[in-house]
């Protein structure tokens, strides 16, 4: 089963921005002592924010095309377009155990 959180661009960008600001302000360690800086977060082509802006629509098209194909017929695809749908999906899973 493949679960695709296919949220709208503004929500994805907002969440990436909020996480980035939080990590810059708190100096939270990401991995191996690495931390985000204002310069890297907002002025670098290595920025996660830049990656979201430049790759979101291409990835969305790519995933839609892949899921619509019969390339992996043994997989079940679940597309959730809103956080509320994800919450309902998880609640349904909890109810089945």
Strand content: 5-15%
What is the general shape?
Answer: globular
Overall average residue pLDDT: 90
Q: What's the number of extended β-strand segments? A: 2
Largest sheet: 2 strands, parallel
Spatial sequence of strands, sheet with the most strands: 1-2
Amino- and carboxy-terminal Cα gap: 18 Å
- CA gyration radius, whole angstroms: 17 Å
* Total number of helices: 4
Structural class based on helices, strands and sheet pairing: mainly alpha
Question: What's the SSE pattern?
Answer: EHHHEH
Integer count of domains: 1
Low-confidence stretches: none
Helix content: 55-70%
Give the secondary structure arrangement, pairings included:
Elements: E1 2-5, H1 9-26, H2 38-43, H3 48-68, E2 77-80, H4 83-95
Parallel strand pairs: 1-2
Helix pairs in contact: 1-3
Any key phrases for this structure?
globular, 97 residues, mainly alpha, 8% strand, 60% helix, two-stranded parallel ribbon
Brief rundown of the structure:
The protein is mainly α and 97 residues long. It has helices at residues 9-26, 38-43, 48-68, 83-95, and strands spanning 2-5, 77-80.
Q: What can you see in these coordinates?
A:
By secondary structure, this protein is mainly alpha-helical. The protein has one domain (2-95). Helices cover 60% and strands 8% of the residues. It has helices at residues 9-26, 38-43, 48-68, 83-95; strands at 2-5, 77-80. Strands 1-2 form a two-stranded parallel sheet. The longest helix has 21 residues, at 48-68.
């Amino acid at each position: 089963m493949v679960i695709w959180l296919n949220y709208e661009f503004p929500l994805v960008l907002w969440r990436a921005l909020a996480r980035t600001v939080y990590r810059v302000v708190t100096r939270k360690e990401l991995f191996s002592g690495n931390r985000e800086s204002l310069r890297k977060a907002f002025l670098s082509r290595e920025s996660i924010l830049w990656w979201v802006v430049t790759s979101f629509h291409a990835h969305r098209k790519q995933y839609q095309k892949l899921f619509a194909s019969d390339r992996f017929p043994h997989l079940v695809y679940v597309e959730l377009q809103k956080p509320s749908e994800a919450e309902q999906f998880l609640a349904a899973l909890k109810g089945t155990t």
